[in-house]
Fold:
Amino acid sequence: MAEGEDLQTFTSIMDALVRISTSMKNMERELICPVCKEMYKQPLALPCLHNVCHVCASEVLVQHGYLCCDPTSEPSSPASTPATRSPRLPRRGVPKPDRLDRLLKSGFGTYPGRKRGAVHPQTISFPCPACQRDVDLGERGLGSLFRNLTLERIVERYRQTINISAAIMCQFCKPPQLEATKGCTECKSSFCNECFKLYHPWGTQKAQHEPTPPTLTFRPKGLMCPEHKEEVTHYCKTCQRLVCQLCRVRRTHTSHKITPVLSAYQALREKLTKSLAYILSSQDTVQTQIAELEETVKHTEVNGLQAKEEVSQLIQGLCAMLEEKRASLLQAIEECQQERLASLHYQIQEHQAMLENSGMVGYAQEVLKETDHPCFVQAAKQLHNRILRATDSLQSFRPAATASFSHFQLDVSRELKLLTDLAFIKAPEAPVIDTQRTYAYDQIFLCWRLPQHSPPAWHYTVEYRKTDTKAKGLKLWQRREEVRGTSALVEYLDTDSVYVLRVKGCNKAGFGEYSEDIYLHTPPAPVLNFFLDNRWGFNRDRLAISKDQRAVRSVPGIPMLFAAERLMTSCHLSIDLVIGDVAITQGKNYWACCVDPSSYLVKVGVGLESKLQEWFQVPQDVVSPRYDPDSGHDSGAEDTTVDAPPPYAFLTIGMGKILLSHGSALTSRDPNGCTVPLPPRIGICLDYEQGKVSFYDAVSFRGLWECGVDCSGPVCPAFCFIGGGALHLQELVANKQERKVTIGGFAKLD
Structure:
């Protein structure tokens, strides 16, 4: 029984040692210098949060033309001074010629940070080999960097783990060297017992040096400020740098957030512990993601081979087509060449027949010897025709075919340009939302365009979701794929909500980047669709309603001029009124209109239908106090009805401004009244049950003004004009003729 327990304990210990050993070996990649590819030796912490050996950093600066002191010199070491060298210690090896030459060229003995030929100190830029960025080291160069003592300790522990049996030998013994038993931080050396006594004699200052365990790397007891050689005691949060007491009082840290190093230690340790705990608790997730990445690697390899094969086939197809075209063009040249050669050879034969010793000339001479007249005529008739053709050919000589083939030249400049521009298809760039044409009303009308030099898109994907600040998590994106065109409608939306929308294009190369998110606020109530009533009430001499009954313009004309003249004699200027063709009797309704900024004075709002009919029967004027639309109550009513809600509620607009007079009369000069710029659209929301009307900036849905209104009977939208002006009702998005697709009933997207 005891033997079994001992075996189990031994197995557990061995498993633990194997895990520790494996962990330490896996950690080796964190301990390798990116320059020398060996374990760090006196690592320096760069401002970019990477590390590099002191020697390697000096050599990198030397390669870039900076002067650096020898990083390996340690004057405080006993081995560096001949006067204190042990008689048993051999002379130090001579540096290698290339290293000695490099150090001599670097200006041995100068502080790091002086560039060759530089009279004044300058800022040193260090190319970090890890992140490939230039790091600013300031004027002091490497002298301003902290030594990473923690990394040094980890490297030393790792060395001891992988090579436990390696003994540290005395640095001062003659061969054969003895194993070191003590170390000295002040001397930065390891000694055997005899050499330690020799170099630390009684009665000298060195005798006060405190012995430490032997080691190959000697570090100061604490982290020292590289500039003042003082122990660091604080941490500057602004500079994200450890500072000493002297650094703390310098101008460079004035008004900086400085905290004790203990506080920074506790805060960073807590953060690091939490982050590490999260990583350790998410090992299953890490393994899953590693498996996913490995699967992605496999797919990448397969898809890469497939893409190469496809490109090869396409190029081979182009080559085959070019070869076919080449053969066709060469065949055309060959046929033309043979035809010309045949014509030229026939012409040569005709001219050869005209030579003195040719057959035709000899035959003609023989025919001339014929004395029988009938026979001569018979033979000469045939010969004479040939002689005439030869004579004409001789007198008007011209080659039967030209030797030039210039009309067989090819212009391949366009094809060469196409081949030069032959490249892989790129996905469309991120679309740009057209904020001038995109808006929310009864539905959302979303409009976009591609950047000027973007590759074309075959179709688009539109996504949107409702934002809810009270919800714990984000709502899922809703989307519609393969949207054609550059605009879309989004319907089935909640009222008084904010939606975020985005678009991305797609072509053969795949999907491009998303556009920037655009946030749109839906109306606070369902949209009321109505037209302007052109059947009764309004003054046809001064108001003109469009054919679609959605726009109205005040045309004062001559009557307005007469009215302006009567103003000088204390007469009244009339208000023209037009109402909507619907009466609201319940619920909450919203509508919007656009007012021409050049309008003199326009009022938009609501009123009781019965009171509006009275208005049409007895037209009101500007200075009359009886039914002032902004007075907030009927000024002619009895005292018992003073607190009753007014029958009208109007927002006054004029000359590109909105008057927010908080219920003051139109002619009032209340100093508390104020104006705001006229937005592109004005929104009106009537809550019939609450007896309240609210006015909005219909673009941002910022509230402008709200007040109570009498809803004891049907209430109608109403619009008043004083002088010239125009407005038109906001068109329903559903009625837009330019829409390309309607989006609704989306599948939810994670």
